[in-house]
Amino acid sequence: MPKLTKRSVDGFAIRDKGYFEWDSEIKGFGVRVMPSGSKTYQVQYRKGGRTRRASIGRHGNITADQARNRAKEIMGELSKGENPVEEIAQHRRAPTVAALCERFFKDHVQHRCKASTQSEYRRAIDLFINPAIGNFKVVDVERRDVSELHHKMRSKPYQANRVLGVLSKMFNLAEVWGLRPDGSNPCRHVPKYREEKRERYLSQYELQNLGQALTEAERDGSETPYIVAAFRLLVLTGCRLGEIQTLQWSFVTDQGMELPDTKTGARRIPLPKAARAVLAALPRLADNPYVIAGKVKGRYATDLQHPWRRIRERAGLNDVRIHDLRHTYASNAVSSGMPIQMVGRLLGHTQIQTTMRYAHLADDPVRRAAEENADRLSNLVGSGYVTEPGLRVVK
């Protein structure tokens, strides 16, 4: 066994089968010569009754002296009861973030999330997470890596925060699955960007314009009656887009719309007369169970965004989103004096805090009530007030 030096390693012959040459000074330190001609420095030792071996580096990439020094370090750590080689091997076997993304989507998202949420998660993974840190080992991701990704998306704060949320959930599950130590989620303490909540409500004048645009679109045939009905139902019920879009005729009962699966679970939504009139005017297709029938046989209309852009342009409402119809429903309910709790039930909110974004609108009926009450009292009191019997103070 020669001492491993650059000269001796360069001189090792290439054979039909790979073989090892061991160093004469350090036990367990050697070089592996492959039929391809590559020569790799190795360290070999016994641990737990098993022979273990790990690569230190390829000859030419590191020198014999560098490999020898690293071998000494490893042997020293082994003598202290540590196992650096096994740690290296575990790190090499550790999954990447891309692999974690796929496991997260397959084992968690597809079983626990609705189709719309699955689509959002898939988009965050494919467009933002994998391109940035997909090649990183799960165990190597640090807070600064997450913070840098979040910072790069600062021009789109809403999207940046959604991606941060997906990452946080993934790394929580990585801990559950034993891929990271407990409490090591790198998303912790990464501050979210402030999101400007849009509060766009249609005025009575705008609602009239929308109604006229819908009527004209149906009359001239630019939109199908099903598309027009979808937007009318959104205004009259305050439902979420997906709830109307996937509504089936079998869900419509005397009690209302019995939806088996919504964002907040199964729920019953009241159907006022105006909404029932919209449904009654729609032709039912024998081969389609959906109320908002689409172009594909037996399916619902999957694209309402493009029709909405055409309709809102016609109505002069270019800044109005489909979801703003739900806000309009809620704002009208609150402004009319309906209790916040009742509005929350109509909207299908599970937490009162979600409905409280409309609370300030409840000031309008309170002010009106205060004015009406003061007017009635003023008629009784007159223009002054009595301080003592027989003494009248005139303003």
TrEMBL record:
Asked whether the keyword Repressor is assigned, the reply is: no
Annotated Tyr recombinase domain ranges read: 197-371
Q: Has UniProt tagged this entry with the keyword DNA-binding?
A: yes
Q: Which InterPro entries match?
A: CB, DNA_brk_join_enz, Integrase-like_cat_sf, Integrase_catalytic, Integrase_DNA-bd_sf, Integrase_DNA_bind_dom, Integrase_recombinase_N, Integrase_SAM-like_N
Question: One Pfam family this chain carries?
Answer: Phage_int_SAM_3
According to the entry, every stretch annotated as the Core-binding (CB) domain falls at 95-175
Q: Which UniProt keywords apply?
A: DNA integration, DNA recombination, DNA-binding
Similarity comment text for this entry: Belongs to the 'phage' integrase family.
What is the name listed in the Swiss-Prot or TrEMBL entry for this protein?
Answer: Tyrosine-type recombinase/integrase
What organism does the record attribute this protein to?
A: Roseovarius aquimarinus
